[in-house]
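Researcher: Next sequence.
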Amino acid sequence: MRRILLTTLLLVLIVSLFQPADAQSALPGDATPLVTPVPPDTSRAIFADVTNHAQLGDARWGQDRLIGQAWGDYDQDGRYDLYLTDPGGPNILYRSKGDGNFAISSLAGQVALIDTLSSGAVFADYDNDGYPDLYVLRRNMPNVLFHNDAGKGFTDVSAQTGVGDPLDGKTASWGDYDNDGFLDLYVANWSCYPDCGRPFAGDTDALYHNNGDGTFTNVTRILGSKTGGAAFVASFVDYDNDGDQDIYLVNDEFINPVGNALWRNDGPGCTQFEQFGGWCFTEVSEAAGADTTLMGMGLAVADFDGNGYFDFYFTNAGPMVMLQNLGDGTFADVSALAGVDMNGNGTGWGTVSLDYDNDGYRDLYVALSETTSEMPLINPLFRNNGDGTFSDMTAQAGMVSDQRSLGVAYADYDNDGWVDLILGNYEQGYKLYRNQAGAGSPNARVALTLKGGGSVNQDAVGTRVTLTTTDGHAQVQQVQIGGSLGAGNATTLYFGLGQQTIQSLEIRWPDGTTQTYQNVPANIHYTIHYGEESGSREIDGTPSNSTTRTILTFALILFLLILMVALARRVKRAE
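Model: Next structure:
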């Protein structure tokens, strides 16, 4: 009888150990460990200037206030490449060599645009072929769309696509406002000033609908007013969390004091715009408290306060402004309370939101061209304290003083999970700053690159990700293309975890599909494709949950067999 009971117990244990791992052990997508941060330089500042070390040339021929910097993996080798514009010389495409260095791409000549006044630039896959295309804005000349020919070349398709807007383009932003699976385009135009004297309105912006066949239709009329406010930047963002892409626009009152604009996406059904697809937008900036009138220039969109709604931070020739999204369709100006208005002591241009120290809260960086006598000319870095306020970390940031900055864009170019910055300066060219905060930091992090498919655009723009750590802190980010000023930030989402672990990760795609993962391992870069099912995977030599489970299973079986033999001997002696 004892032998039967012992055998039954052994079989039950073995069967239970071989049951499939539950959903909580599943890993999202393809996983690659993040690189261990290199030791900091002797300054031990937060950021280090590695421009020369990374083999990026810092010469800049043009002195006009036109600057553009775009991150994008044009050859799809898993590393961010970099495109830099120059209003007085050729634009340059750099290819990442994967070792922290860059080399001028063999394709650079195809996208150089020599002897033209180039300004902003951005990568986006407008035709969903898996390779990011390149859109370059120019001053009072037609903008240029380069089709990426599978990473082997670029072809100018501006004429046949119909997006060669000829005005004073500053920033291009991409978003799928009608959720048809193809990215639409918003071009923010400033003004012909001073070439045309002092106009009473800015150049008209342009909203292009992607027809899905390689062509676009200009549908700017569906927006109504405020498209002639001398704009510097717009961003597609779902500010009301209803699942579609709204548009926020930053205007410059120096030309036309109409204030910023917020267009709420109300979906199809506007018969008066039937020839433009019948899509409905309602300009709600005044009712929402988001119609700030200022010399607006740069824009950063993020959930700074962690309430699950996206806030706006924009720069100015005067006090900078942070609008807190209250979650009821309205905003409140919390600039002074948060400590990010700079007391009106600077002229700000590009700005980005990033979690530079990976503590789980979105920080701020601002590019300045001028300051008053009360503060030095150093670009400020603000650390989010997690309580609605920010601390000024400028002194520790390591940025060089006395250089007028205009553009800034972020990406983790060295794949260590600590976000880096490319900075565009007025006279001194571009500077690449490597984030050194990771050396010796106990904070964990995770990076997510999302890939669309089917009804979702290939870049997954508009996808919303909610990451919740074990302390209950929830972070929300959205894949976005276009922001800062003339910039193309990385589309990878970077989450800092502090010293917490991931409790849950929810991905809501633009078509409403959701994918949820539990207990996701940290310090890993995941590439997640729309529609793929979760499953345990090997992580580049690190045992996955299934591998670990198998090892433990055989160890326990061996232990139980030894125990069974020992018990059997005792039973035999007892008999």
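Model: The longest strand covers residues 346-354. Helices lie at 2-17, 158-161, 285-288, 335-338, 394-397, 545-574.
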